[in-house]
Amino acid sequence: MTERDVMEFDVVIVGGGPAGLATAIHLKTLIAAHNTAAEKSGSGQTIAGEVVLIEKAAEIGAHSISGAVMDPKGLDALLPDWRTMEPKAPVEAEVHHDYALWLTENGGFKFPITPPPLKNHGNFVVSLNKMTKWLGGIAEAKGVQIFPGFPGAKLMREGNRVVGVQLQDSGIDKHGAEKGSFQLGGILAGKLVVLAEGSRGSMTKQLIQDLKLEGKNPQVYGIGVKEVWEVPKGQCAPGLVVHTMGYPLDSHTFGGGWVYGMGETEGGKNLVSVGLVVGLDYQDPTLDAHRQLQRMKLNPKIAAFLRGGKMLHYGAKSLPEGGLYSMPRNYGDGFVIVGDSAGLMNSMRLKGIHLAMRSGMLAAETAFACLKKGQFDQAATKEYADRMANDWVHEELWQCRNFHQGFHKGRLLGLLNGGFAQFFKGKGFLFADNLTSKAGHSFMKTVGSYWKGKGKPKLTKLAEDGTLTFDKLTSVYSSGTLHEEDQPCHLVVTQPDLCSTRCVEEFGNPCQHFCPAAVYEMEEKAGTRHGIELKINASNCVHCKTCDIMDPYQVINWVTPEGGGGPNYTNL
Ligand code: SF4
Hints:
This protein is an alpha+beta fold. It is 27% helix and 24% strand. Helix 7 runs antiparallel to helix 8 (378-389).
């Protein structure tokens, strides 16, 4: 049998988002400063510091999508002179005006004051796609080896110790046979592996399960669906930030929307970002975040921003919303976990880029200390968690540690809980701390129970007009998603029989609704109990991981497809 090639590095970083790139940049900066000092002093104690970063997208930034209003705190720490650097940092616009809207079906009203967590003065509207591309250039210039188009297939372990990453094989057909283009994935051996895979990373998920790293509460996620529009000039000022609550979500569903003025592109296009986040702990088995975004755009207050415009791009991603009590143990023998993979997001502010960058820096400082000591075991990597506990990252997350859990009692109590916490150092209802939570999928009700007393499920199709509202396939087209068609399905359903039996009867196949990219379809099939069976259109997948998170039976396992496949996010 052919042996896999092994390449040896000091540090292997999995993922080219803000957390992984911040780790790479800061680590190389620390090593360079150390080596300069060592050469000057003649100590001769330089560090080689071979750092490699792998990214599943064909190029850095192609899978990066976020809200995104960026708190510059993270970038200020990572690259203090970013405002004057060349090439220029790709920030779209500084926030100059913000407000919050309460939406009803046909209108809404402006809140008299903007809730403090939603104040954004001094922050920047950014395209994470452009920001990560820019950071990737800096990392490369500092000597980081960047391998785009190389997804990690599995972590290499010796017992509990992580010793490297096995890359995905390529050139295998959908039946599992080798094609002419077959290539065995190599192994990147590392003294330290930094997991920066983003939300619900497939290798991180496995590691958390295997080593029982889960926090006090299980992680609870949300899904963000987003469009970027070109609109007539003057219709949405660059740097305007509007957050919405209420319609189209019901009072038992966590979430809210946004409209951000992104400003003008070099080609003179005036861009606007519009999107919606829905908590993946909802009850309605027919809930469809893509459809909810289309409904939100029909509200006259939102439609006014988009009138006469054109939808250019679409994307979706999950985000870890559970907060501090849902964060897994983020270190161990030979590894640390950073960014979204480690649950670093402030769901009260709908922000995570600054936390991701800062966690990358703390991981880099830990990696640097490990390299100097030549020690990479759990006792050494614990320094990462200790650094975080004494950093503003922890301070910020501490203030909102009970936020998301409060919404499990409904929107009104959730908002009251969040408001209460503002004045009592993040404490929840009646000074309660550590509000508990359970995994988001377990909140989903069966069709019979959710619709009891409400009549039949209201699944009437939205009359998408192709101008303001779009069907899922049109949206997927706008995400630039492409995969090699002839490859094994990367959505592994471990108990497919459930789909055409129990799931039909209990939940009505919610995968058809929660997937924002029309990947799951129930098609007619004679001889099955209900005359239907599951069809998976894997090539539509935008890598949001919602199916892996929200499937009520937890039988969908998202694994990395062949390298380079997936969305191609531009301006997102
Ligand atoms: Fe998201 Fe899963 Fe649909 Fe892919 S198949 S777009 S990961 S829900």
